[in-house]
Amino acid sequence: MAFPGFLLLLFLSCSPPALSLYEDQVGLMDWHQQYIGKVKQAVFHTQKAGRKRVIVSTEENVIASLDLRRGEIFWRHVLGAYDAIDEIDIALGKYVITLSSEGSILRAWNLPDGQMVWESFLSGSRPSKSLLFIPTNLKVDKDNVIFVYGNGCLHAVSSIDGEVLWKELIAEGVEVQELVHPLGSDIIYAVGFDGSSQFVAYQINAKSGELLKHESATFPGGFAGKISSVSSNSFLVSDATHSVLVLISVKDGGISFQQTYISDLVPDFSGTAVVLPTKLTGIFALKITEFVTFVKVIDEGKLEVVDQVDNGAAVSDAVAFSEGQEAFAFIQHEENKIQLTVKHGLEWSSDLLKESIEMDCQRGLVHKVFINNYVRTDRTYGFRALIVMEDHSLLLVQQGVIVWSREDGLASVIDVTTSELPIEKQGVSVAKVEQNLFEWLKGHMLKLKGTLMLASPDEVAEIQRIRLQSSEKSKMTRDHNGFRKLLIVLTRAGKLFALHTGDGRVVWSLLLHTLRKTEQCNSPGGLKLYQWQVPHHHALDENPSVLVLGRCGHSLDANGVLSVVDTYTGKELSSVGASHSIVQVIPLPFTDSTEQRLHLLIDAEQHAHLIPRTREAVSIVQREFGNIYWYSVEADNGIIRGHVLKDDCDLEESDGYCFNTRGLWSIVFPSESEKIITTMRRKSNEVVHTQAKAMSEQDVMYKYVSKNLLFVANVAPKARGDIGLVTPEESWLVVYLIDTVSGRILHRMTHHGAQGPVHVVFSENWVVYHYFNLKAHRYEMSVIEIYDQSRADNKDVWKLVLGKHNLTSPISSYSRPEVITKSQTYFFTHTVKSIAVTSTAKGITSKQLLIGTIGDQVMALDKRFLDPRRTVNPTQAEKEEGIIPLTDSLPIMPQSYVTHTLKVEGLRGIVTSPAKLESTTLIFAYGVDLFFTRMAPSKTYDSLTEDFSYALLLLTIVVLLVAIVATWILSERKELQDKWG
């Protein structure tokens, strides 16, 4: 009996578990990448021996400690969208000090490991600019003091425990610009503006907070821009016209102004000038168009130009590199190189450093530079530069080479689409053939030991290494399961990246010229990615391409820009700056002979512009003229409108690719009771396997599947703010299902005492949305399913035979549909950031909701838990159908987290894409981090997993064959003995 039991155990061990991952499986089907975003401030910490690091804060509200040798992250904290970092610095040589939330929150973090030491909340009377100042030689009762200006108050805070030592209220209307501490003094100077033309200076006792002196003076020309400190008692600012430099001196005798016309310093000056804050004693930088002029303050406040450089991209702050000596750096561009120059603050004629560095043109211009000094082996001073590029990447330059670089632009992804890889013309091999028999045997023996859980930790690591080496997941060709694809991502910097789904590496990147700042396009920004050309498998000579849409400004009436990019090579095929605004893009369900997809661009005047601009495209649109509908949402006005094409544009510059439009219908929601906060519709490319849904007792209902269905969520006007600001009686949520062709409202439901934000997902014939219930003080998720009642008699087979079946009649959106809805509401314990739904190739596999939680993780929830037909005591027929008994809350199981123990910091979106294998869907989550994996909602019923042990299966077959032969021999022998007996 023991022998068959052993065989059964051996056979069952061939099947991998379904709900968890083994240690050696991590990284085989998923990858996780950590980023920090575009750096805006940096502080070096290299004084002591050991790990040299740089502390940075970024536009993604991340504070991080980076290794200066390799650029790796020692530690980081993502403070979130509502806690923007204002300033950072280092105190006592061991604490990282951060000021955030407009000067309201001051924190100290332990420098080596990033643990928070203390946190202080600083109150104030009014919003104001925030400043952080840490004097190096000022102590109060043996305690280093941190000075913070924010919310109209100046605070002195202990660096040891964060206690507020004193607080000084600054007069209303005064905006403090600089905090200055003269060397060896106990006085803090706070200087700034009172209104637009009055300069004020406060003298405050740094130890007690007593206001010693308050001076003010009025400058008739007014001020503009920020104050730049030239010395401990001299400041520089430009006047309101940006044509005069005003040197302000604060001495015991009072405040004095000295004017210098910029045209006297720069003879060919025109336009405006900006004072760059270099924090260099006696010298400041003046940026005039493409030039940077360095000006020195000489005796009696006179200004003298010491140098002028063209193509100046960035100027660093001053850094002290020796006792009483300062240096700063500036960068110039030279074709595909940048030139880094470090100057001495006092001896301008000589360069401390001048290096030329090769630079990838796809990184764009230099936006910021931070320098740090170190001592070489020959006891001379060297300098390293931390450079922030236009594409948000981060580089460390030392001794004329790029030591390391980080693609931190990927922390600001704004849109994602997918692209297929090219077909391998030679054919895809089924399995990799090992050249070395010994290595082959060794590898399979290790896999066998790992399956039987007999492998040591070192052997587990070796198994993972072998699997990653032999895996074909990183090949640049398609696989027959459709797991290998390209993720095309657009970042806020206007840069496109192609990421391989196998290992997450960057295949190519492209900084789009149309989304870069130019004279014609002052503030460009990327908006959206669209599929432009997706050739079928027979059109191998054409590469797929994507359409990138941008806008030259933040307003809707700003002109748009377009680019078409090849997804295989990353080359920009065409680009055009549109002469009109782009308020809305309508992808049409039509393609031309080259398989380019047609799009309508709707401008602010409601004209529709067709792309691609070809006569074939025009003929296709004219042929389908009466079948093109779209809608627009005016959330601020509470109006939803339906539109159709009318005729050719009557504009003077009309070129045949522009059409007039007319309004077809409109829905106006009462502004005193409802405000639109969310709208959602189905994905246009979603596949629905069947419209019929089998119910219990052999009943069938037909899904109302329409691509013209729109979900709208409205809340009470008072409930548009944060949770808790209104009472349940003042808040309600109203949801609608609207047909966008006819404007007919098919369903309306009100949730009393509910409040947003509302996160929603729309798939097939159902909608799931998440909101907050003020009465229950809990989050809820509701589901609405909509069915087509007009097909209820489709079960009559004789009608189908006689041709009287209603499925044979044409379907029109203008015919009033007979629909019924089913809905249900459940409690849900998590705050939600984003919701998506799995998608598969044929739509057969069960659906799962992918929920991005407040903890920046992604969890999967089976759609069956959100079935509106769930009851407390389901019938036997309902149980057989798979109906789960009703509970008031949705379950959250540890095994349901798609991201395992990882976090996608700053999670903003989840994108799903079907693989060719019906059971599998590809999942990509993005925020400050990126995470990719693939999952099988109904398990891998149509394939064997990658880690299936073929060696163990072969061993099992061999053992079974031996057992059969042995059993046959024993049976023959026993039969012979019975005959002799």
Automatic annotation (TrEMBL):
Protein name per UniProt: Uncharacterized protein
Biological source species: Rhododendron molle (Chinese azalea)
